[in-house]
Design brief:
alpha/beta; eight-stranded mixed β-sheet; 33% helix
Amino acid sequence: MLKGKKIILGITGSIAAYKACYIIRGLIKQGAEVQVVITPAGKEFITPITLSALTSKPVISEFFAQRDGTWNSHVDLGLWADAMLIAPATASTIGKMANGIADNMLITTYLSAKAPVFIAPAMDLDMYAHPSTQKNLDILRSYGNRIIEPATGELASHLVGKGRMEEPENIIRVLDEFFSASAELQGRKIMITAGPTYEKIDPVRFIGNYSSGKMGFALAEECARRGAEVTLITGPVQLKTQHSRIHRIDVESAQEMYEAAQTCFPTSDVGVLCAAVADFRPETVAGKKIKREKEEELTLHLQATQDIAASLGKIKEDNQLLVGFALETNNEQQNAEGKLERKNFDFIVLNSLNDAGAGFRHDTNKISIIDRKGREDYPLKPKQEVAQDIINHLVAVLTH
């Protein structure tokens, strides 16, 4: 799947820079076109002549290559590439990428890149484990970058630990699998709900929940990346979509989300119900702000909202799939299995508020996928990686 792909290879100042030669050879052998962008420190470890000989392209390092007014355009490079790979990526470069410190050609190219970005860290074990490095990696993950985790082994310091850049063949495999997956959902129409709903009490107050929408948005981006046409129905969130194949519908209340889902699902191949929809709403909504004067108590009479999942489960055709989510605080397995059956889901994604780092507002999640064949548990991961696990399971169901 790498044939014809245009890859920017960013090289930084690490002893692992010599492995870039093997990455270049492997990519070109599979038919890719490689353009090297190297930092000034990177040139201390490997020469541009070597890299240019392997790529058959001049190596880019400086903004101004000559003194005749010509310059290297990081914008053009960002538009040219199908993917950008930084391997090796030092702690310094990772920090600059995370914080937008554009003081060299590699960072400005990264900031201009429209294509997916892969980062292969390489550094000593203490540098990799340092909280600042881990925070910067989390920031890069939250931007949608893909981190190729370093391996554990002997390092340049002769210490043994995690920080050794992943081997070239494994890095190439990650890119190959990425582009292979990009066509898995080609032609599929997928509806996804995300975020909370707000149920008005009066013009300034509402009943809501803590959902940030991050999980649903990560699922939408992952489905779009794999070729699907995505309709994302989202409650009030502060997130933005990135992929051009995502059609976003903004709603506020459970009723509005219900109506949008009823309209979209019949023409969809898959429905993924990730939103945290309010179960109840006030029976009446005050037309003016409710004032607290002499009254010390306010009684709200609530009524059930439309059950979006149950309604879609009833109209689901044999050629459609419906995926549900269950956020539980107790009896997790029992409650999820009951919801799976009642709502006519094909599988359900379970996560628990009892797991640290999972649930609302976090950038990570810990899930289990339950279907009628059993349960598969996954460790705590960034939500972008959790989305990949969920869509991998969806693709397997669609395939079989």
